[in-house]
Every structure is written in structure tokens, then in C-alpha cells.
């Protein structure tokens, strides 16, 4: 049971789940200096998520956003590059044996936008004086309006990875478009009431919470230990999912109760590439030794190569463009020239789930659809 809870907890981290590795400089101070201002101009709460419809970012008006008056100043923070969290770095959060946890401005702005439901760009603000705290816990940063900004004014201090309002962190509560295969959808009420399906549906729904609230990804590691306290206190129907109580996790969160999420299941008609003829939802692929596997732009060259080589026998590429494939895939480098290309949840066109979800919710997966490519680069 503990192993299953651990798997399920991983799914709360975000639509990326356990599938992201980003190359980072090893010098923490250099990274902070290089990232005082986020590089991603489109860094907002809807990144990599097409189904987040609960609340729109604050509408533009003649009044400037006062940074000192923001409701939520205690934020999750890690290292993010072009909208993708560094999961290796995330594993060090709170690890006093390894104090190399990095925090950069892009991650801070991402969380600031999500929790406060605003849509600031990096050009609107300046983030400085980033202090990583102790292994990332209880860090601080200063944010102030950029000179001449037409969107914000003032400045304030932010507290990082300490006393985060969990309710705000999962503030997008309308989980629209929870795609599920046809035979389950057609008998949804019966299937979801079956006690044997409780873990499968719980994991499936929790993944969607991560899709709708991607700043959870910054807290991947502590959420693993928190799962054992959260998951036994979950109730749900086909229309509602309730977390009865959340833990504080040694001051990381402000504990809360009875967090309710609205559910909307829809029949999954998204396109997919066909998996291998075995039980796991993946495809094995061999690539030429000269394949470009540079991590630049989150492995964009490798993604292009894989997309081109994937079998199109069921014409899935007619519905899923290369751009869509690039947006909703993440790459993890394995051993011996192996690369794992994971199709994440969140696309309305491309079938995708966290690969680990299969081990709890396999019954709900499409029998033919794949969510991972195992790409082996030849040695010679």
C-alpha cells in the first residue's frame, strides 16, 4: 500500500509528474545572478494546460497591480527553464545532506501568477536578492515593479517554500475535460462506485489536479511523504472530489480541510500512437548514433526526430502536429544512451498520461494508446 501511495503522490506534482530533467549549471550563485529576471515571456498559470477554466487571470484595467497588496506571498519555488521544472533539483528540497537546491526567478514568477491568479510577464517586474534558505526551505526573494511598468507598482518580499497556503496552491478547482476511454465513460456511475476501482480513479483524478495547478511540481519531493496523510482522507463521486484534510509537512503548508473539486469526465477521443504488443503503454525505438540529443530547448531536436520516426499507421499525425507533440512531451535521460520521451497530460488532441499512472489506473487506460517512447541511441 505504501508503494501505491508513493506512486499516487508523484502524480500530484504536475502534468509533468516524474518525467522531467533539465540541465542546470552546478553553481547556485551563478544561476541566481543569471536568472534575476525570468527568460520565459509567456510564464503564466496556463502553461502546458488547455483545461484550466475555473478563473481567468486578472483582467486588464487602468489600475496597477500593487505588489505589496498581493494576497499570497508564500510561494513554492524551484528551478524552472522555459516552463519546465528541473526534477533533479527538486529532489534536494529539504535535504539537509545536500544543500545544492536552486531557486530562480522564472519559478518564482510562475508560482506568483498561479496562486494570485494574475498574469505578470518578466518585463513587468524585477526579482532579486534570492536566498535559497536551508536546502530550499524558508527562502526569500524581493520583487518590485520594473521601471516604467504599465501593469504593476511597488515592491514586496516573498517567502519561499514555507507556510504555503495549500488551498491557494490547488486553487483551480474545476477539473474540466477529464478524458476517459469510452467503455468506462459509458458506465461511469457504476465504475466509479465500485470499491475495487477506488485507487484507480483517485490517481486518475489527482493527475488532473496537477494538470490544472502546475506549480505543485516545485514541491514534488515533499508531496511524496505527504501522500500517506492526504490520500486516506479522500472521497469522491463522478461529480466531486474532496480532500478532507491536508498536512502541514513541518511548516511547508498551512493545513486546510475539505478542499472540493468539481469533476467533468468526457469521452476520450484524442489521437494516440500505437503501443508495443505488450501490456505497457510504450513504444521502443532505436535511433542513429548521430542523433542530436542536446538538452537545448528541452530536447527539441530529439523530439522532432522521434515524432518523424513514430509509426503513423492509425493516422494520428493528421490530428497532432509536431508543435503539439513538442509542447506535450518531456524527456528524461536514462543510462546507456537511453532517452524516455513522455507524453504528459493536458492536451486536448494528443493522448497522454504520466507513465507511472498506469500502475494504479491501468484499467482506465486505452488498450492501444502509448504514453512513452523509449528511444535507444546506437553506439556505433
From TrEMBL:
The protein's UniProt keywords, in alphabetical order, are:
Signal
Residue ranges, compositional bias (Low complexity): 28-51
- Give the domain of life: Bacteria
Span list, region Disordered: 28-60
Q: What are the boundaries of the signal sequence? A: 1-23
Q: Which PROSITE patterns match?
A: PROKAR_LIPOPROTEIN
Return the protein name. Lipoprotein
Amino acid at each position: 500500500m505504501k508503494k501505491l501511495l508513493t506512486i499516487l503522490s508523484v502524480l500530484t506534482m504536475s502534468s509533468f509528474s516524474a518525467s522531467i530533467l533539465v540541465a542546470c549549471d552546478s553553481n547556485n550563485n551563478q544561476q541566481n545572478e543569471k536568472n534575476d529576471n525570468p527568460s520565459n515571456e509567456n510564464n503564466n498559470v496556463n502553461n502546458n494546460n488547455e483545461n484550466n477554466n475555473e478563473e481567468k487571470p486578472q483582467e486588464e484595467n487602468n489600475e496597477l497591480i500593487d505588489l505589496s497588496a498581493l494576497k499570497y506571498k508564500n510561494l513554492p519555488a524551484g528551478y524552472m527553464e522555459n516552463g519546465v521544472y528541473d526534477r533533479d533539483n527538486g529532489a534536494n528540497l529539504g535535504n539537509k545532506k545536500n544543500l545544492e537546491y536552486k531557486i530562480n526567478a522564472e519559478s518564482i514568477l510562475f508560482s506568483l501568477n498561479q496562486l494570485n491568479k494574475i498574469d505578470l510577464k518578466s518585463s513587468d517586474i524585477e526579482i532579486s536578492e534570492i536566498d535559497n534558505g536551508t536546502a530550499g526551505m524558508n527562502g526569500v526573494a524581493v520583487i518590485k515593479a520594473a521601471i516604467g511598468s504599465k501593469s504593476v507598482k511597488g515592491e514586496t518580499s516573498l517567502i519561499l517554500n514555507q507556510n504555503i497556503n495549500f488551498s491557494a496552491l490547488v486553487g483551480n478547482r474545476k477539473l474540466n475535460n477529464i478524458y476517459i476511454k469510452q467503455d468506462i465513460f459509458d458506465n461511469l456511475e457504476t465504475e466509479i462506485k465500485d470499491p475495487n476501482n477506488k485507487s484507480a480513479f483517485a490517481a486518475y483524478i489527482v493527475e488532473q489536479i496537477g494538470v490544472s495547478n502546475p506549480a505543485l511540481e516545485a514541491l514534488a519531493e515533499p508531496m511524496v511523504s505527504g501522500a500517506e496523510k492526504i490520500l486516506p482522507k479522500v472521497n469522491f463521486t463522478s461529480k466531486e472530489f474532496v480532500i478532507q484534510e491536508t498536512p502541514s509537512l513541518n511548516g511547508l503548508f498551512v493545513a486546510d480541510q475539505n478542499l472540493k473539486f468539481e469533476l467533468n469526465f468526457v469521452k476520450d477521443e484524442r489521437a494516440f500512437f500505437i503501443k508495443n504488443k505488450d501490456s505497457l503503454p510504450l513504444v521502443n525505438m532505436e535511433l542513429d548514433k548521430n542523433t542530436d540529443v542536446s538538452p537545448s530547448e528541452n530536447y527539441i531536436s530529439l523530439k522532432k526526430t522521434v515524432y518523424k520516426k513514430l509509426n503513423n499507421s492509425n493516422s494520428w499525425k493528421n490530428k497532432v502536429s509536431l508543435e503539439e507533440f513538442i509542447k506535450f512531451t518531456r524527456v528524461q535521460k536514462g543510462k546507456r544512451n537511453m532517452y524516455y520521451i513522455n507524453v504528459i497530460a493536458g492536451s486536448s488532441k494528443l493522448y497522454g498520461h504520466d507513465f507511472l499512472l498506469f500502475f494504479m489506473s491501468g484499467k482506465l487506460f486505452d488498450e492501444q494508446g502509448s504514453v512513452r517512447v523509449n528511444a535507444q541511441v546506437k553506439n556505433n
